[in-house]
Amino acid sequence: MSDKDNNVDPLLIQGHDYDGIEELDNPLPQWWLVTFLGTIVFGFLYWIYYEPLSGPTLMEELNEDLARIEKIQEKNEAQAPKLETVNFATLIDDSEAMGRAKVHFVAKCATCHGQQMQGLIGPNLVDKYWIHGKGTPEAMVGVIRNGVVEKGMVPWKGVIKDSEINEIVAYIISKEGTEVPNPKAPQGDKVD
Ligand code: HEC
Question: Among 39, 126, 142, 175, which is least packed, fewest CB within 10 Å?
Fold first, then answer.
């Protein structure tokens, strides 16, 4: 008996000895096996659910989600004050409302639109050029509530009360055409 035989490696596959070359049994780690078998079980259940049991397709799931979002939006719209009933001209004459609007503007909007609305990161709000909806009060309320996230305009819905967003819009309208230092170059379409 050689030294080797006295000290048999437990992983050695007995009898697999070819011209002195021996085979080891290298078992896969437990965690790996469990994960692997888990994916097979998952794949099988997944297939059962979506094929024989005809689970919803991706398109159907998407449409369900979109319908749910639409319902939530409709509910929110129904709760928002009706814009047709907001009189922006009256708001402009309401000095308390304009005071509140100015505080909001300086605190929340001026960083991007400038203290005088001359435009910085965000567009100039006192010129005649508008990116969204020709600068109508309704369009402004929409942009301010919903934001233009991909362009860096923050949605303020839920942060500023709807009634105060209306006041801010009236405040912006009241500043239209004012002379401002370093106005930002026009963006969007000219509205006369
Ligand atoms: C983080 C920067 C940022 C802040 C803060 C911000 N805005 Fe904006 N805003 C933008 C950008 C950028 C745009 C341009 C969006 C686009 O290109 O579609 C924009 C667009 C607008 C528009 C539409 C302009 C147009 O030409 O159609 C209005 C109105 C507006 N912002 C009002 C506000 C008000 C009111 C506040 C504060 C409550 C505010 N913004 C805060 C960045 C900002």
Answer: 39
Burial bucket for residue 179 (CB in 10 Å: 0-12, 13-18, 19+): exposed
Tell me: the pLDDT tens digits for 94-104?
999 999 999 99
**Same-domain check for residues 110 and 181:** yes
Structure tokens at 185: 């170059």
Query: Is 65 within a domain?
Result: no
Evaluate whether residue 21 is within a structural domain: yes
Residues 118 and 186 in one domain: yes
Q: How far is the CA of 37 from the centre of ligand 1 (A)?
A: 53
Total domains present in the chain: 2
- pTM (predicted TM-score): 0.66
136: DSSP letter: -
Choose the residue to mutate in 98, 153, 154, 189 for probing ligand 1, maximizing ligand atoms within 8 Å of C-beta.
153
Nearest CA, atom 34, ligand 1: 109
Taking CA atoms only, the protein residue closest to ligand 1 atom 29 is: 140
Q: pLDDT tens across 20-33, in order?
A: 888 888 888 999 99
CA-to-CA separations, 80 to 23, 74, 155, in angstroms, rounded: 76, 10, 15
Which range of residues forms the domain containing residue 12? Answer: 3-50
Q: Cβ(130) to ligand 1 under 6 A?
A: yes
The tokens for 74 are 């409709």
